[in-house]
Amino acid sequence: MADDPCTTRGGGLPRLLAIMDRLRDPDTGCPWDIEQDFASIAPYTIEEAHEVADAIEREAWDELEGELGDLLLQVVYHARMGAEAGRFDFHSIAERVAQKMVDRHPHIWGDGDRDKSAAQQVADWEAVKAQERRGRTLDGVALGLPALMRAVKLQNRAARVGFDWPATVAVLDKLREEAAELVEARHTLSPAEVQEEMGDLLFVMANLSRHLGVDPEVALRGANAKFTRRFETIEDALARDGRTPMQSDLAEMDALWDAAKAGEKSS
After folding, report:
1. How many domains does the chain have?
2. Same domain for 21 and 89?
3. Which residues belong to any copy of the NTP pyrophosphohydrolase MazG-like domain (predicted)?
């Protein structure tokens, strides 16, 4: 139908909201969409957020628009389910975040001093958020965050109330201690205990990243990309001989890795 808002191009956000309403209609909607709930959609929301970050990391600007659209769809989905339950809707979500942004920027929409550094504005923002929470120090750090990211956020919260190592050297000492404990006890610990000790070690690594001013998620993504690039170089070299990694051995692949590494440094 020409006047159907779901199929009329150029409708923008109202069109997307109408499409979601239609998909969730209990009588005429899509069976799969009707069956979904907050819990079943949450993994897709996380996945889409990561795909946005991936496109930015790769500077794939031609893909970013589509990925942002996919992420917006997730918000629309949750908003529709919230409206069905009488909890909230897209308008109330947008109004709430709009008011939050006004409240947290008194130097723009109030009598606050705009003549501050970005770091001071971040500190002021955190103070406002702490006042909004009015609860325990670690309240509100989302469980669904990537583990490394959540570790840093937890540590930053604790540091604001003085629970932090005074210097990076103390973190390095703790890192060596945790690593030594894991190596020494790995043959006597149960699998669950090894996992716990490994978690302690990773938590200290996240804290070291924080003290060094490094985002561990960004650092690990870079390491993942480097590993992928160099391993693909190994595969390419073997393919030129008509072979695969399964037809090679560790010594040869190690040599090819070193060659790939040297090639990157010389370029």
Report:
1. 3
2. yes
3. 36-109, 172-231
Q: Do the domain assignments include residue 94?
A: yes
- Both 164 and 97 in a single domain? no
Q: Which domain holds residue 154?
A: 135-214
**In this structure, is residue 122 part of a structural domain?**
no
Q: How far apart are CA 51 and CA 90, in angstroms?
A: 23
Q: For residue 62, count other CB atoms closer than 10 A to its CB.
A: 8
- The string over 224-249, giving b where at least 16 C-beta atoms fall within 10 Å of a residue's C-beta and e elsewhere, is eeeeeebeebbeebbeeeeeeeeebe
Q: Whole-model pTM above 0.85?
A: no
Do 223 and 203 sit in the same domain of this protein? no
| DSSP letter for each residue of 214-255 | --HHHHHHHHHHHHHHHHHHHHHHHHTTT--GGGS-HHHHHH
Nearest of 14, 57, 3, 19 to residue 220 by alpha carbon: 57
d(CA 149, CA 50): 13
Written as tens digits, the pLDDT of the chain (267 aa) is 457 889 989 999 999 999 999 999 999 999 999 999 999 999 999 899 989 988 998 899 999 999 999 999 999 999 999 999 999 999 999 999 999 999 888 888 888 777 777 777 777 776 766 666 667 888 888 888 889 999 999 999 999 889 999 999 999 999 999 999 888 888 888 889 889 999 999 999 999 999 999 999 889 988 998 999 999 999 999 999 999 999 999 999 999 999 999 988 876
